[in-house]
């Protein structure tokens, strides 16, 4: 087990990102927060840190319970990080799946004149 681990390496090791480069980019774009502060890829992680990972529309929260700098099998990830994301945040994923009113299926083309009038009547 490592003593000092960079945040980009840690995020890659616990399989939150496919590559270390993607983890570093997320840090640079302020998508990774520790204590509500954006972090640089070189920031060292400590046990007990609360990580917030912005993967829109959800802000995932994780608690660091162990340090590691080598990529591990997915079954061992729970030994190093604990998901503490609120149910309210996870519900946002379900809301994103619900189609919005007036959205048309891809490939159906523009509405006909009759369909457009029907849509306008529904909206008024």
What is the overall shape? elongated
> How many strands, which pairing sense, and closed or not: the largest β-sheet?
5 strands, antiparallel
Q: What is the mean predicted local confidence, pLDDT?
A: 88
Q: List low-pLDDT spans.
A: none
Topology pattern, helix = H, strand = E: EHHEEEEEEHH
The percent range for helix content is 25-40%
Q: What order do the strands of the largest sheet run in, or round the barrel if closed?
A: 3-2-5-6-7
Number of strands: 7
Q: What proportion of the residues form beta strands (DSSP E)?
A: 15-25%
Radius of gyration (CA) equals: 21 Å
Give the number of helices.
Answer: 4
Report a brief summary of the structure.
The chain has 124 residues and is α+β, with helices and mostly antiparallel strands.
Helix-strand layout with pairing:
Blueprint: E1 5-6, H1 7-13, H2 20-28, E2 32-34, E3 37-38, E4 44-45, E5 50-55, E6 58-64, E7 81-83, H3 87-97, H4 113-123
Antiparallel strand pairs: 1-4, 2-3, 2-5, 5-6, 6-7
Helix pairs in contact: 1-2
Main attributes of the structure:
124 residues, alpha+beta, 5-stranded antiparallel beta sheet, two-stranded antiparallel ribbon, 4 helices, 7 strands, 31% helix, elongated
Give an account of the 3D structure.
By secondary structure, the protein is α+β, with helices and mostly antiparallel strands. Helix content is 31%, strand content 20%. The chain is built from 4 helices and 7 strands. Helix 1 crosses helix 2. The model has no long low-confidence stretch (mean pLDDT 88).
